[in-house]
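Q: Hi! First time asking for a complex rather than a single chain. Here are the components, and I think there are two in total. Is that enough to go on?
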Amino acid sequence: MNKLISFLLFIFSVSCYGSEELIISSQTTVGYEQPQVTSHAGNILMMKYDGWYFSHEIMDPVKIYPSIDLTGLEKDYVKSLFELPVRQTFPKWLSELSTEQADVFGLSDNNFDHKKLNKIEIYAIYDPESDKGNVFIIEENQVHHLNISGGKDKYTMLINSIKER
Amino acid sequence: MSLDNIEQNNLKTFLESVYGSQVNSWLMNDDMFDLTYVLLQKSKRCSDIMDLVPRPMSPGKSAAKYLTKEIKNIILRTLKDRKQHYKSCVATVSWSMKMDFINKANGL
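A: Yes, that's all I need. Here is the structure of the assembled complex.
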């Protein structure tokens, strides 16, 4: 009887894993499991679990850096962190900023993940030194930034949970 | 020893220049000072202010507890007086540490 209950609990927990769906735009959803804490501060929604969290925000090109307005450039700027040829099209100061930011995120030698779906494009990097990941979802009119702090398995799970609607 | 009013104001002025008006609701305490210290430490272009810190300081140690009141005072006054310079030199690291600050501010 105890074995049957344990089995049913296992099946129930597996079926619930990632069963929730966070709609972040008309084009994109992110699957997630029920968090221990949900926090909404300013533009940022955060789901916190035991030992890890992920957050979501729509990138505001005016607020990425103090005193720098990236309006109209945000999609290319995010791509430039991952793609050297894009960075090379920038003026020197912006190219240097992109290089420095890429270094801070832990990018080197194509150690990033890239997915191109029908309507969205995903660029992501996990830095094992800091146990942090940065995931960018590029849509036609906006860029989403998912920030994750936790193990690589959680990062991989998060990327795989991003779907087009 | 916790930050006094002047130190809290200096810290808030600097962090507001980096993270904007959301900082107004953040509590300026030792934890926030420690995070700011890490922000400066990770920002390689801010090495001049780190020269004020006596070496060696063990990794993971609380800067707020390790540094003397005089050194903390000098660091915070320098950050406030030269905030244009320091907000620029921490720019890229500040983006990667934004959630650390927000979580700390919200007690998470």
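A: The two ends of chain B are 23 Å apart (CA to CA). Let me know if you'd like any chain examined more closely.
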